[in-house]
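Give me a protein, keeping tokens residue-aligned:
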Amino acid sequence: MKKFWKNASLRLKLGLIITIIFLILGFVVYFFPHADPFPNNIRMKNKPPSMENWLGTTSQGQDIFWLLIEAIHNSLTIGFIVAAIGTVAGVLVGLISGFVGGALDRILMVVTDTFVVIPSLPVLIMMTSLMKGSSTVILLALVLAVFAWAWPARQIRSMALTMKERDFIHTAWFSGEGTLQTVVTEILPFTLTWALSNFMNATLNAIASESGLAVLGLSPGNLVSLGNMIQWARNYNAIMMSRWNWILPPIVGTIVLFVGLFMLITGYNDYMSMKRGR
């Protein structure tokens, strides 16, 4: 760990620190005892920040601080689920397609290319509309994951095609290893670094997609997320009323989270490039 921290760039360090802070807020502070912030009219409305309500309350009587904590938790959860499904499915499809080849490769690539070329936004709008404004974190994550695996599958297939002709793969075949064993033991380890980078990037894209749907008013209305917090503040004229303690936390939180994840992704890629160069 000391060696990693010594060799890591400032960008990677800052990205890691910001990401850890958000993880603490979303998965540690979130579990501190507190009342459910989502129900309306259970607190005094439009209260300024105080010791009781650190960021004040909304015009609906919701505690903004705990609303923000729950939004961070749900947005990160959606991002992690989408990234996990997209990365795992993409790696499996790409490895099988590239390594097995033949008719199976052509079939898998036709399906993959179909998901690559289909514009995701209209489909996501249609699917979220069918939810009729009511959904769960898991269901929304599954909807977003429909389009999260295609590009990773394409990239992993390219890696598999280049590696399958190398000498160590032929050696594995001659030693009696089957196709599945060869893929798991010989090729999969080479994809883990790429998979981690793709996981972080997919997390960022998933949170951005959900936030975009929310700002358009298409995210489930019962879901507390960073995008929905911005949408609710806009709907209730927080800007017109100069309620900056309401509108700024989700906006600043979203921007800082995106910047932190971006710095973590690019910093990690630079670190691995430097490590391979050595």
Observations:
- Residues 197 and 269 are 7 Å apart (CA to CA).
